[in-house]
Design goal:
Layout lengths: L1 E5 L2 H15 L15 H17 L23 E3 L11 E5 L3 E6 L3 H7 L19 H4 L11 H10 L1 H6 L6 H24 L1
Parallel strand pairs: 1-4
Antiparallel strand pairs: 2-3
Helix pairs in contact: 2-5
C-alpha cells in the first residue's frame, strides 16, 4: 500500500521557494531570492523562473532550474514517471496517476490516513528526520505568509499550480477561484460525456 499526502498548493509552492532560497549560497545575487526585494517581487520573479524552466528543454535549462521541482504542482509527482528512458523524474510522465498510489490525502490528516491504512505514525522513530521549518534562513530571509502576498502574486502562483486544484480539494485564492471552478466544470462534462458514450 502506497500512501501519499499533499498540502495546500500555495503553501507547497512557497515552501519550495524558501527551500531553494535557503540552499542558494548567494541568494542576494538573484532577484527571486534577494532580501533587497520585497516578498511580492521575489515570489513573482520565482514564478517566472519556474515558467521558463518548464518551457525550456532539459539540456538548455540554467542553474536556477536545479531546485525548481520543489515548487512544481504536487500532482506531477503522483503521475507515473517513465524512469526507464534515463530522464529526470519531472521531465517525462505517462500522463496518468501512478497505479501504486492507493491513497492520497491532506498532509494535515496524515495521522488519520495512516490509521485507515492500518499503520501507526510515530515521527520519533524516523532517523535523521529533516525539519526544514526549523531552518534559520527560512525563518528570516525566506519567511512567508500567504497574507503577505498581493492578489496579483497569488493569482500567478495559482495559475502555475492549477492542476493541483483540479485533483485535490483545496480552495483556490479568490483571484483565480472562478477560473478553477470553470475548468473543473469543463473537465467533469468531458468525463461524463465519455462515460455516457461507452
Amino acid at each position: 500500500l502506497l500512501v501519499s499526502v499533499v498540502r495546500d498548493p500555495i503553501d507547497h509552492f512557497l515552501s519550495g521557494w524558501a527551500e531553494c532560497g535557503s540552499r542558494s549560497p548567494e541568494p542576494e545575487q538573484y532577484e527571486w531570492f534577494s532580501p533587497a526585494n520585497n516578498i511580492n517581487e521575489r515570489v513573482l520573479s520565482w514564478v517566472e523562473v519556474l515558467r521558463r524552466c518548464v518551457e525550456t528543454e532539459p539540456s538548455q535549462r540554467g542553474s536556477e532550474c536545479r531546485c525548481s521541482q520543489h515548487s512544481y504542482p504536487q500532482a506531477t509527482f503522483l503521475l507515473d514517471p517513465t524512469r526507464n528512458k534515463g530522464k529526470k523524474y519531472h521531465d517525462t510522465f505517462d500522463k496518468k496517476i501512478d497505479p501504486s498510489v492507493e491513497m492520497v490525502g491532506d498532509l494535515r490528516d496524515i495521522h488519520g490516513m495512516l490509521q485507515m491504512a492500518g499503520l501507526e505514525y510515530d515521527p520519533s522513530t524516523i532517523p535523521h528526520r529533516r525539519s526544514t521549518s526549523k531552518d534559520p534562513s527560512k525563518a528570516t530571509i525566506f519567511d512567508w505568509d500567504k497574507d503577505m502576498l498581493s492578489a496579483e502574486v497569488l493569482r500567478s502562483i495559482c495559475e502555475f499550480v492549477m492542476v493541483d486544484y483540479y485533483l485535490f480539494e483545496f480552495e483556490a485564492p479568490v483571484g483565480c477561484r472562478d477560473e478553477v471552478r470553470s475548468h473543473i466544470d469543463q473537465i467533469e462534462k468531458v468525463v461524463l460525456y465519455k462515460v455516457s458514450s461507452k
